[in-house]
Design brief:
Layout lengths: L1 E6 L2 E3 L5 E9 L4 E9 L6 E6 L5 E3 L7 E6 L4 E6 L8 E9 L4 E3 L3 E5 L2
Parallel strand pairs: 2-11
Antiparallel strand pairs: 1-3, 3-8, 4-5, 4-9, 5-6, 7-8, 9-10, 9-11
């Protein structure tokens, strides 16, 4: 059983920062890609940022220059540093990992609310 446990969500004012973290545990094959997705109320889940095992990153245009994704391969963790947060960043954020057999695993989600 693979478990992804997220932490770091919360309420923050516009312009503020949050750091999301995700720890992967359990029995799994080698992790290939890790990423973060967001889902706002009434909308589809969309990619926020993704990072390969070789540390190649890609970001949604809406977060480029504000968010930074990182990972620790030895500890099976992935983090998302979110700066200059905007009200439109409000969503549930989900951690995602893909293993070497292309199986995808998801965390339970953590709420991020940006509001004054």
């Amino acid at each position: 059983q693979v478990q992804l446990v997220e932490s770091g969500g919360g309420l923050v004012q516009p312009g503020g920062s949050l750091r999301l973290s995700c720890v992967v545990s359990g029995r799994f094959l080698s992790i290939r890609d890790m990423g973060w997705y967001s889902q706002a109320p009434g909308k589809q889940r969309v990619l926020v940022a993704r990072i390969t095992r070789d540390m190649i990153t890609n970001y949604a245009d809406s977060v480029k220059g504000r968010f930074t994704i990182s990972r620790d391969n030895a500890r099976n963790t992935v983090s998302l540093q979110m700066n200059s947060l905007k009200p439109e960043d409000t969503a549930v954020y989900y951690c995602n990992v893909e293993d070497s057999m292309s199986f995808n695993y998801w965390g339970q989600g953590t709420q991020v609310t940006v509001s004054s």
